[in-house]
Amino acid sequence: MEKFLIFIIKSIPTWFIFPVIPIINFIRKLNNKPPVPKEKFCNYNYKNDSNKLILLHGVSVGEILSLEKLIIKIKEYFPSYKLVITTGTNTGQELAKKKYSNYADFITYFPLDFYQNTKKFLEKINPKIILIAETEIWPNFCFCAKEKNIPLYLINARISDKSYPSYKKIKKLTKLILECFSGVFCQSEIDKNRFIELGAKKETTLVMRNLKFEIDKKTCDIDLKKGDSKLLIAASTHKGEEEIVLSTYKKLKEKISNLKLLLAPRHLTRSLEVEKLLQGGGFNYGMRTKNDDFLNKDIILLDTLGELSKTYQFCDVAFIGGSFNKTGGHNPLEAAIYSKPTVSGPCIKNFRDIYSILSQDNASFVVKNEKEFYIILEKLLSDDNFYSISKNNCEKCFSSQQGALEFLIENLKKNLN
């Protein structure tokens, strides 16, 4: 039965996928989206002839960002090894090329999962070991890697509450796929137990904790002269979000007279647009590029590049932008690492797993609308006990999640040395 199921999986996509691709591309064109990248069919000239190459896969933005420190450490500890990075989405591909071109020998798309295509991919890349982030368990790719005796690891592995019941419905297939992995390294005990229940090998399914929490505090060379004032940072805001922030700030200011606001648009090209909002609202504001500070200003517009992550240590609370529109949110960990509670709007798809961990521990708060936004900010900024608990929760959350990077490097040493 198992052999027949594997045969069906290997066979069907080969004749099914090619007629479907033109239809998919036509639909994508109607929606002003680019066609399926040709690289997903392994249409490139790259060919690895060495036997020393590490393949690293992260499907999209969140996964690619989480791999940053691992990529740096791989090049540090294994300089003789080539590194190939793959992604599944266009946005993931753009980010990988932007961040890791100096580290990777080749960056491309993960192959579409039909057997001949994955076989062609692995023959071209010829990896010594494969590390796949989170829950990318494609059957043909896994079967092909096993046939070629390539060690295959699922790292930072997780299964959400939402997807777990779906995997259980196809447990026979999931078990066949998971048996191809040399190791499944999970974010938590819950994830570990779920993978084992779905068929992963018990002896090689381990808890590694969470790579996304492997970030460092930034050295600060900024003095905004905050003094005894309370500071709210509105970080990486997008069009439409500044109005929500400024309206909420104005109401908060009536209750908390010493409250200051650092407003940091995601894109500096919008600085003039945001300044006009400040002027129109009659706010007492200054500009970071003019070296204004909070001695005489209520609001500072952070119109400089590369300073935002340094300023979180000054704030009391941070609003993380891109969450009141369709952007998908930005990384709350850059503030949480300083034990600063974060608040976000409802659209957090890019970092949903991180928000899930932080929110569960009451270190971060996701609100549905502007009314809830005001309520939680007012509570954090005026209820000292509630605020202190949230700060402590940030610290506990970080300490419980770190250690993943060291775990993976030690495992690579065992495999590669």
Give descriptors for this structure.
14 strands, seven-stranded parallel β-sheet, alpha/beta, Rossmann fold, 2 domains, 417 residues, 45% helix
Can you describe this structure in just a few lines?
The protein is of the alpha/beta class. The chain is built from 17 helices and 14 strands.
How would you explain this protein's 3D organization?
The chain starts with a helix and ends with a helix. Helix 15 crosses helix 16. The chain has 17 helices and 14 strands. The chain is α/β, with parallel strands linked by helices and 417 residues long. Helix content is 45%, strand content 15%. The strands form 2 sheets. The protein has a 7-stranded parallel sheet, with helices on both faces. A 7-stranded parallel sheet has the order 10-11-9-8-12-13-14. The protein folds into 2 domains: 192 residues, Rossmann fold, CATH 3.40.50; 171 residues, Glycogen Phosphorylase B (Rossmann fold, 3-Layer(aba) Sandwich).
In CATH terms, what is the architecture of the largest domain? 3-Layer(aba) Sandwich
| Mean model confidence by pLDDT | 92
CATH fold-level name of the largest domain: Rossmann fold
Tally the structural domains.
2
Helix percent reads 40-55%
- Strand order, main sheet: write it out: 3-2-1-4-5-6-7
In percent, how much strand structure appears in the residues?
A: 15-25%
Number of helices: 17
Rg (CA only): 24 Å
Could you say which overall geometry the principal axes of the C-alpha atoms support? elongated
The CATH class label of the largest domain is Alpha Beta
The largest β sheet comes out as: 7 strands, parallel
Structural class: alpha/beta
β-strand number: 14
The end-to-end distance, rounded to whole angstroms, is: 39 Å
Q: What low-confidence regions span 5 or more consecutive residues with pLDDT below 50? A: none
CATH superfamily of the largest domain: 3-Deoxy-D-manno-octulosonic-acid transferase, N-terminal domain
